[in-house]
TrEMBL record:
Keyword Signal carried by entry: no
Keyword Membrane: no
CDD domains linked to this entry: AKR_Fe-S_oxidoreductase (cd19096)
Keywords: Iron, Iron-sulfur, Metal-binding
PANTHER family: D-THREO-ALDOSE 1-DEHYDROGENASE, OXIDOREDUCTASE
Sample GO molecular function, one term: oxidoreductase activity
Protein's recorded name: 4Fe-4S ferredoxin-type domain-containing protein
Domain 4Fe-4S ferredoxin-type: residue ranges: 333-365
Length: 375
C-alpha cells in the first residue's frame, strides 16, 4: 500500500479509503453482512487505514455494519469517518442528537474524521444560522471528534465560500476524469489544497460508470496507450497522479473489487503517469462528453420517489442504451419494470430534484427517458 501525507495533519493516509456506501446486499435489500465484513477486513489487512460511512447509507444500516467489521482490534488500525445528516438539522440540539447516536451505532468513543454531509448553499446557510462553528469547537473540546470537514455538492462559488468560512481540516468532493469542471471540480481541489485543507475524493469511478467496458469509440482511444491498465486503474491512477488529492474513497461492492483497487493503490504515485497517458485521458474525456446524456452516479439519494419511479434505474438504462448503442436490450429492460417504476410515471412533483447532489434536472431528464423508450 502507498501512503500519502494528509495536508497539515500529522498522519499519512492509505492511497485508497474504503467507502461504506455500496456493500453487497441480499435479496431483501439488506447488507450481506458476512461478505461485507470480509471486504472491510481484507482492505485493512492489506493497508487501508480509512473507513468512511454516513447516517443514510444502506437505509441507516451502514454504520452498524462498520461497527461490527471494526471489532477484534480493527478499530484501532483505522481512522473512522462518518457524517452529520445536514438535511435533518433544524435546531442545534439536532446536531448533538445525531452525533451521539452515531457514536452509539459505531460503538466508539470518538470519530476520527467527522463531516457535515452534502453541503450546499441552503444547508450551509442553515448551519451558520445555528452557529455550527461554536458547536464544532464544543465537540472537538469534548473529544467526540478529532478532525472536522465537510462533503460537498453545489457549485464552485459556494465551495469557496465554505472553505473560507472556517479553518477546516479536510473536505470531500466528487472528482474524476469526467467531473473536472463539475461542482467544486479541479478548481476547488487546487483552491482547498492551497489553503492547506486536505481533499478527499469521492466518486472516483463516477458511481461505477468508469469501471465498465466502455463503448468501442472509447476503447480504441485507451488502446493507443502502450500499457494494459484496466479501466478502473486508468481512472484511479489519474487521480493519484495529482499532488492535490489526499486520497480517494471507493465504494466497493464485492471482494474482487477490493482486491483490484488495493493492487492499484499499491502501484500509485504522484506524477507517475506519462504525458502520453495523460493525453489519452484527455481524449477519453472529450469522447465521453459527446456520448453520455445524463450525469447520474446512481447514488440513490433521489429515492424513494413519492410515486415509486425508480429514477437511478431509468437513467442507467438510458445512458447504457445511448453510450453503447444498445437500444433493444435496454428498452426491453425498461419495459420489464413496473408501470410505477418507469420514467413515464413521473408526476413532476420535484421532490427528487431537491435531493440530487449532481443537480440533475430530473423531471426534464425523465421526460427524455420516457420519450426515448416509448417514442
Amino acid at each position: 500500500m502507498e501512503y500519502r501525507q494528509v495536508a497539515n495533519l500529522d498522519w499519512k493516509a492509505s492511497a485508497l479509503g474504503f467507502g461504506a456506501m455500496r456493500f453487497p446486499t441480499t435479496a431483501d435489500g439488506k447488507i450481506a453482512e458476512e461478505e461485507s465484513i470480509e471486504m472491510i477486513r481484507y482492505a485493512v489487512d492489506h493497508g487501508v487505514n480509512y473507513i468512511d460511512t454516513a447516517w443514510p447509507y444502506h437505509n441507516e444500516e451502514s454504520e452498524l455494519l462498520v461497527a461490527k467489521a471494526l471489532k477484534d482490534g480493527y478499530r484501532n488500525r483505522v481512522k473512522l469517518a462518518t457524517k452529520l445528516p445536514s438535511w435533518l438539522i433544524e435546531k442545534e440540539e439536532d446536531m448533538d442528537y445525531y452525533l451521539n447516536k452515531q457514536l452509539e451505532k459505531l460503538e466508539t468513543e470518538y470519530i476520527d474524521f467527522y463531516l457535515l454531509h452534502a453541503l450546499n448553499q441552503e444547508r450551509w446557510t442553515n448551519f451558520k444560522k445555528l452557529d455550527v462553528f461554536s458547536w464544532i469547537e464544543k465537540i472537538l473540546a469534548e473529544g467526540k471528534i478529532k478532525h472536522i470537514g465537510f462533503s460537498f455538492h453545489d457549485d464552485y462559488k459556494v465551495f469557496e465560500e465554505i472553505i473560507d468560512d472556517y479553518d477546516w481540516d479536510f473536505c470531500q468532493i466528487q472528482y474524476n476524469y469526467l467531473d473536472v469542471d463539475f461542482q467544486a471540480g479541479q478548481k476547488g481541489l487546487k483552491y482547498a489544497h492551497d489553503k492547506e485543507v486536505a481533499v478527499i475524493v469521492m466518486e472516483p469511478l463516477r458511481g461505477g460508470n468508469l469501471a465498465v467496458t466502455p463503448p468501442e469509440s472509447i476503447k480504441s482511444i485507451f488502446a493507443e496507450s502502450d500499457n494494459n491498465r484496466t479501466y478502473v486503474d486508468w481512472a484511479l491512477q489519474w487521480l493519484w497522479n495529482q499532488k492535490e488529492v489526499a486520497f480517494i474513497l471507493s465504494g466497493m461492492s464485492n471482494l474482487e473489487q477490493v482486491k483490484e483497487n488495493v493492487e492499484s493503490a499499491a502501484n500509485s504515485g504522484i506524477n507517475s503517469l506519462s504525458q502520453k497517458e495523460l493525453a489519452v485521458i484527455k481524449k477519453v474525456q472529450a469522447k465521453y462528453q459527446d456520448l453520455s446524456p445524463v450525469g447520474c452516479t446512481g447514488c440513490e439519494y433521489c429515492i424513494p420517489c413519492p410515486v415509486g419511479v425508480n429514477i437511478p434505474r431509468n437513467f442507467k438504462l438510458y445512458n447504457r442504451a445511448s453510450l453503447y448503442q444498445q437500444f433493444t436490450e435496454n428498452n426491453q429492460k425498461y419495459n420489464e419494470m413496473g408501470d410505477k417504476e418507469k420514467a413515464s410515471a413521473c408526476i413532476k412533483c420535484g421532490a427528487c430534484e431537491k435531493l440530487c447532489p449532481q443537480g440533475i434536472e430530473i423531471i426534464h431528464s425523465l421526460k427524455d427517458v420516457a420519450n426515448y423508450f416509448n417514442g
